[in-house]
Amino acid sequence: MCGIVGYVGKNQAPSILLNGLEKLEYRGYDSAGIAVHDGVNINFLKAKGRLENLKKLYEENPITGTLGIGHTRWATHGAPSDVNAHPHVSDDNIIGVVHNGIIENYMEIKEELLAKGYNFKSETDTETVTYLIDDNYKNGMSFEDAVFSAVDRIEGAYAFGIICRDEPGKLIAVRKGAPLIIGKGEGENFIASDIPAILHHTREVYFLEDNEIAVITENTVDIYNKDRQPVHRDIFHVTWDIEAAEKNGFAHFMLKEIHEQPRIVRETILKRMPEDKNFVDLDDIKLGKEELDNIDRIYIVACGTAYYAGLVGKYLIEKICRIPVVSDVASEFRYKDPILDERTLLIVVSQSGETADTLEALRIAKKHNARVLAIVNAVGSSIAREADDVFYILAGPEIAVASTKAYSAQVAAMYILTAHIALTLGKISEKEFEEIRDEMYQLPSKIEYILQKENEEKRLAAKYKDVHNVFYIGRGLDYMVSQEGSLKLKEIAYLHSEAYAAGELKHGPIAMIDDNSLVIAIATQNDIIEKTISNIKEVRARGAKTIVITMEGNKMINSEVADDIFYIPKTLDILAPVLANIPNQLFAYYVALNLGTDIDKPRNLAKSVTVE
Ligand code: AGP
Fold it and tell me: What would the pLDDT profile of 496-515 be if each residue is shown by its tens digit?
């Protein structure tokens, strides 16, 4: 939540900051601001609403300078407004601060600062930090010491970019529990919440760790730990291209990311299941026979879409490997005193690798000596760094707030892990493994085939765009897919939708069904398809319109059951989720397009949820 960018060098900071913020807008977009040092003073501009408003303000009131910080906000303390927007700059423009995260003890510090005569203008927790540093500085501390001392006082999760009026060539970066990277240039340096913000300028990056402070000038980057001892950090070289974070002719990032799925699923599968090996190559992930024999219990913990991908994993590991798995949303798991010990494997799933609840679940598990395997997209993210083992999915930067390609890659990762565990523990034969693997190789072209039928989903979205209640139903793995489908529609179309296990409808929810309802039924699981069909008939008999997603060749789904049928190519039942989810993504996308919502940046949401 919130995006931070900072620059120190010889070039004009404002355009670098504004361009960087554009790439970070996915993190929060209710207001934005920049503060720039012109060599004498700090000048700043802030505007409520999208970055466009700030850009307009900047065109009308240009500010100049070669040192600066910028911010795009997702409100936590105080509504979106000009005054609550960052940077927060102290009186006489001495200290300027941008912040991502939450300061938990800000009230107590604010009381003290109020007593000292500080006059608060905003409702934010961040302003407290600005004045705390300002107060330290006015009491004779150096800029660096004023920051170190303030950081000792504050509690919570944060990343800061800080500048000082009397230090026109210095930028200070602080990190604890919120992402922050430093980009190393030639005679210029950058800070940012995420790599795309600086990728136009440099590929050389330092990942700041928790409780570290970096003092940055145009030619130097000095990193210190919380005891103020210098820390050495290796440079990370970014290999992916900026195009990966651009729309490439698609109307929205979401659509582009939906279309990237064949390639991403192919790459994720081939990396771990190369054609010349008849086993899973987990590389340096330590999950061999010995480790697996030492595991009594598996948890899969995540949030949102990543959680729904985890549900597919739970289902598969239990069904195929016969190991009990508990899946939980991280915000619940972290507070329920879960049973954890050294014989527990916790699998956390996260696209961003920065989700606060998931990160905390990981930390709790580690405290209890459990093993943690993270399935992560963002390389070098906090979750990736703190887990015992990392299974990187190869989805590249996902910019649209609604996750699509990461889900498919996460589900592919679940197939890979399941196949590995099952083979290692002798739950499937080599022949069965090969059968699953060979069918997995077909998934990318089958996704491609579904994407070629995009117009069918466009037509369905236009046909049903006026419905007010949408129910997604399914059984077994189809129910898992229903949950993700429903979330997608809520997120980007703002439509009320719910997902139900099809057999549960008659225990209550069916009372809501009438002729204004749309039911999207997923019916791919052959062993229970007849039961699902009965449930679809029950809602149809009560007036609901039905779209059924099923596999080609399924004669049981006909016009008696469905108003509309969307066929996915035939595959093994266990592999159906990754295919059946694609039409749901397209349906949500085109409904949202018809309704004119802001698809890539839906209201009230942020891509990376770094607050609990
Ligand atoms: C997905 O469409 C959502 N925006 C959201 O549910 C997301 O999946 C969730 O916040 C978890 O994020 P993570 O994968 O980065 O941990």
Answer: 999 999 999 999 999 999 99
- What are the beta bridge partners of residue 183? 190, 205
Residue 2 designated active-site: yes
Helix, strand, coil share (%) of the chain residues, nearest 5 = 40, 25, 35
- pLDDT, tens only, 162-182: 999 999 999 999 999 888 999
Answering whether pTM is above 0.85, one says no
Give the gyration radius of the chain's Cα atoms.
25
Q: Which residues contact 144 (CB under 8 A, 6 or more apart)?
A: 172, 213, 215
User: Which among 300, 301, 305, 348 is the best mutation to test ligand 1's pocket, defined by most ligand atoms within 8 Å of the CB?
Assistant: 305
User: What does the buried/exposed string (b/e) look like for 51-74 if buried means 16 or more CB atoms within 10 Å of the residue's CB?
Assistant: bebbbebbeeeebebbbbbbbbbb
Check if the beta carbon of residue 355 is closer than 8 Å to that of residue 610: yes
Ligand 1 pocket by Cβ (under 6 Å): 303-306, 350-352, 355, 358, 401-403, 491, 608-609
| Cα first-last separation, the chain | 11
User: Is 303 a catalytic site residue?
Assistant: no
293 CB neighbour count, 10 Å cutoff:
10
Candidates 2, 164, 303, 321; catalytic one: 2
